[in-house]
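USER:
Try writing one entry.

ASSISTANT:
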Amino acid sequence: PSISTSSPASQEGTGIFRLIAHVGRNFNLATNSEFGVCGTIDLTAKGFQQSQSPGNASHGGQGTGYWGGAGNKVYGKVKRVRTIGSSSSSGAGGGNLELHVAGEAAISGHIRANGGPDHTGNGSSRSGGGVWITAGSIFGSGDIIVRAEKPGGGGGAGGGRISVMLTTPGATFDSFTGRMSAHDRPSRYNAGTIYT
């Protein structure tokens, strides 16, 4: 596969840590229970960094201000997800994964682009990032998570965005038994988007 990263830019384009991978055949994010190994792509806190984003904890879902007022508008696209998560004064938003697989995508491990931890203790929130996958087909029991992070107190954050598009005619999600989630933790505020 070919893998590249891009430098800081805008909400709608490149991000601080936006990982782009093109796989010419099949892709396998595997687990091995015998050895306690679980394949993981983790872009948690790899979006807009602390106090640097324009999103006020919004992304796929709308965040709220510290005292519960409206946050900034949601941004990004539902299908072609190339945006990263918003930060706050306490931490970073989630990054972005763009994965294009020509053949089968076996997802038994974890793909995460969650909002990052609170570095200041002030209770402000960080939105989830984005994941865009295209593949001929998909199977496995792994998870794809773009969760917002809210430690308690302060305002809420919006979830990120997930898009998984199958390119083989007639392909379905029947063989994928894993989980996709784009909500806020602890699910108090606006969820993001999931497109399949």
Observations:
- The chain is about 0% helix and 30% strand.
- Residues 51 and 89 are 5 Å apart (CA to CA).
- The two ends are 24 Å apart (CA to CA).
- The mean pLDDT is 81.
